[in-house]
Predict the 3D structure of the following.
Amino acid sequence: MKLPIADAATTRAYTVALLRKHRRPLAVMVVLQTVAAVAGLAGPWVLGRLVDAVAAGTDARYVDTMIAVGVVAVLAQTVLTRYGQRLSMVFGELVFAELREEFIERVTSLPLSTVERAGTGDLVARTTNDVNKLQHAVRFGVPRVIVAVVQITLTVVASVLLSPAVAVAMFVGVPVLLLVLRWYLRRATAAYLRESASYAVLNGTITESVEGARTADALSLGERRYGRVKDDLAEAFAAERATLNLRTVLFPGIDLTFVLAPVAVLLWGGWLATQGQVSLGVVTTLVMYSYQLTGPVWELIFWVDEIQVAATSLARIVGVQLVEPDRQAAAGEAHGRPPRDERVEARSLRYAYREGHDVLHGIDLDLAPGERLAVVGPSGAGKSTLGRMLAGIHPPTGGTVTVGGVPLVDLPLDELRGHVALVTQEHHVFVGTVADNLLLARPEADDSELERALRAVDAWDWVSALPEGLRTEVGSGGAALTPAQAQQVALARLVLLDPRTLVLDEATSLLDPRAARHLERSLSAVLEGRTVVAIAHRLHTAHDADRVAVVDDGRITEIGPHDELVAAGGDYAALWRSWQHDA
Ligand code: ADP
């Protein structure tokens, strides 16, 4: 179950929509480039006029004027090109930034179930490799292609306007160019793939040989490793030669067509001039135009190739947007009624990670506001799954979970988090200061609130002992937090978020038992009045709770206050006895 990849039509529609959205800057760019290109066409035209004028006999004043016109045109072209380039670059950056933001937003709101099913590798590849490939094309390619297309079009149009008869000669190189390109493109992909694969193998062999040097030595594998490296090198050499061969045809081939055009214009136009069909000046101008074409044509060839690569990446990036949302927040007054209270209710709750394999088999559960419920049971019983349902992480596949009568999955995400939130044993320390890590939950919180939250999870002592306290950089590259400390930070975030209902899925599992119990007690003090569902593998949590629910094989088998369950002598009582015995 991979993430979807957009098909060609969707990718094209997306691109068109993107360009349409940026119509105005695009139009300004095209206009600027057009004016610049026209100014660029003035030079050869002036020269042609001069040739004709001199041939017919003229005075120095005319020559001076024409040269002045030429100089002004060159200056104008320089200035216009500068601004045009700048605008294009800024445009490329803007569009790319927008794409990236949109993508990140999409990725961070992907349904968890989809990410879990597809695995993170695919997603990571798309956020790194594909975004990188796309960025080059969007930031540099698109602006350059626009410039090249404008220049080519205008030059061809100007040539045809000046003399269609001579202009035809400009195109003699085109069939040769197409043949060469076709020959190259047919072979290029396979050859370059082979080249990169051969280097990957070579890298692998060398890295393995170096890392396993002792083993290779101990087993006298030196000769064999040496042989492998030699073989891999030979393959890399052959692959490199193959692509070099391709290039030794491509580059001279393209160069040939580039020379062909001006030569053909010169010969054909020269002959027409001797017949009195065109003036020498026009031929001069067209020869120069055909020279001027080589730059943009070359650029176009280069970028079309790159843009093709980028298009496959774009298809993978757009594909991420095709993932169906797993919830549809009911919006507007018409649908969205606010929860009437904080009572969380599960009715006939079922969930299947894989179709047909229910993990929860119809659970009914009422949580009274302010109650503490401990959930215990053997591993694999479905406790975490129940926790995720109660926190609205996944929509149930059967039955409902409601808060104040409203299904959790009908609430917009940020509103949902005000009602219920989940902390699991998986936690992440974000790069930034300790304060940054906490402010994610409530950006407007001040230092005293942060301190209070940290005290509530017994973390204030070590945070205030850090070199810069709350302002200490943590996460990758900063001060390393122990897993237990990271867990405390996650809990402090929850305290700041202050939802009415908290689901703690073994949220203190990484602390030692005594610290965990102390933390849970101080946490209780600040969470006064909040509903807490604690999935616990340590039974003291259950002992301290108002009620205990025993989950087994996707069902609640016992539920009630600790003392009652112990007195009833069922599974929980047995569990409690053996735990006490061990403890
Ligand atoms: P507990 O928290 O009680 O250990 P879980 O809710 O984690 O139980 O798991 C209940 C069942 O669901 C187990 O059989 C487990 O293998 C299965 N399960 C849990 N997570 C997933 C998942 N992401 N994909 C498929 N099956 C899962």
In short: Residues 222-274 form the longest helix (53 residues). The domain at 344-582 is CATH 3.40.50.300 (Rossmann fold). The mean pLDDT is 88. The longest strand covers residues 344-354.
